[in-house]
Amino acid sequence: MSYEIKTGNKQAEPLLWTGDFYNEGTGSGDIFDTLKEECGVFGVFGHPEAASMSYYGLHALQHRGEESAGICVANGRDFNYHRGMGLVKEVFDKDKIQSLVGDMSIGHVRYSTSGDSRLTNAQPLIFKYRDGDLAIATNGNIVNEPLIRRELESSGSIFQTTSDTEVLAHLIARSPKDFVGAAKEALRKLVGGFAFLLMTNDKLLVASDPNGLRPLVMGRVGEAYIFASESCALETIGAELVRDIQPGELLILDKDGLTEDRFAEPQRKALCAMEYIYFARPDSDMNGANLHAARKRMGSRLALEGFVDADIVTGVPDSSISAAIGYAEQTGIPYELGLIKNKYTGRTFIQPSQELREQGVKMKLSAVRRVVEGQRVVMIDDSIVRGTTSRRIVNLLREAGATEVHVRITSPPFKNPCFYGIDTPDRRELIASHQSIEEIRREINADSLSFLSPEGLIQSIGGLSSGDYKGGLCLSCFDNDYPTQVDFGGAEKEGCSC
Predict the structure, then answer these.
(1) 424-459: per-residue pLDDT in tens?
(2) Which residue among the candidates 39, 72, 496, 498 is catalytic per the annotation?
(3) Chain centroid to CA 201: how far?
(4) 450-496 pLDDT tens trace
(5) CB contact at 8 A, 187 and 264
(6) Is 39 tagged catalytic?
(7) What does the DSSP assignment read for 270-292?
(8) CATH superfamily of domain region 36-267
(9) Binding-site sequence positions for [4Fe-4S] cluster
(10) What pTM was estimated for this model as a whole?
(11) Domain ranges of the chain
(12) 291-342+352-479 is classed in which CATH architecture?
């Protein structure tokens, strides 16, 4: 379903109504044009309460995908699984969890772009093939998926979803090798950023792309092994963090225990920098760095690179709070809670008027008038995408009485699209790709604007001491230096990631 209104002879921009409720499948057209993560994965091997543990683990990863959720459990004979659209707490209840009996499971939360918000794409994806059942859960994006899909379809494959994850199942099914050999062979054909959990009736395979672009960690609780996109999910179930899954690594878990193997040699290490800047929860650790501490250092470094005299510092919730504290500590300017996020603006069945839609930012964010009124405010945020959100928040602070609003961004200017699992607009829609910093400042109505330098970002995360190229980070969205090939002969992606 779609809907638009017209005012006079001028056609207004389309309203965000694409389904049964107002903001279903809104994707990057949401009131907040922030970047969207694609997915989160969670796996359990060797625990009788695998389904329950996956449920709580997915709750902890809910910020990585709010559109669909699913859990598949293996009991050595067959699969039990359930998937649905919505939040984890909406998809599962006590009865559904109790029906998922087994000691091995994989789970998934997903965000998709508009048009691909459908149950058929909800993961884990389940398949029947010659050796039995196969379930796959993914975080990331396969860049050469259109080319592989086209080749498979030309030789007879019939796809059931628009998810790029399905190509891996077809590649495995076509291989004459055993499951592990077929998985290795298939994974080597993929280009992109991905963290895979693959489960059969008696095996669990865990794989990370050769560049380590998407995060994946391993933990232990008793004798059971746990795998998750972020370490915060391990904490939720009382598991101990063991280590990060390494680039090109393949872990095999079966009746013989854990076998550490690999399907490819590690390439240039390039963990997505936006995980540190924005996506991951502040209580997660990645590559030995705590996210809250790293973001505080970003704020501190930003204060050195872009100091401005002001009365208070405030952060845009939630990802920028840590950086705002760091900025305040470095400058001595008091940190104040100048912006409040409403955490309960989920799906609504009421279609707002165009006027209310323009004011819709206030449904999700409020300025604390008694804090900002009459004050010179430093507003810390993680990124500027199109610029529309930054402008709305700056104006929100001005309407609440701020005399000056100085914007400080804890990342370099975002100029290039991501091909590895983040939903980003076309390069032409990225304001920093065609406007100078001064032009962006005027566009967002700020008194001043400053971005964190790439060197400051790498140093804040702690990457300089690693000796890896660019601190082991992927900075392609800032500098156009992609760690993999991204052009595959004009094969255009029509489906969705994850």
Answers:
(1) 768 888 999 999 999 999 999 999 999 999 999 999
(2) 39
(3) 29
(4) 999 999 999 999 876 678 999 999 999 999 999 999 987 655 555 45
(5) yes
(6) yes
(7) -EEHHIIIIIS-TT-EETTEEHH
(8) Aminohydrolase, N-terminal nucleophile (Ntn) domain (3.60.20.10)
(9) 272, 418, 474, 477
(10) 0.89
(11) 36-267, 291-342+352-479
(12) 3-Layer(aba) Sandwich (3.40)
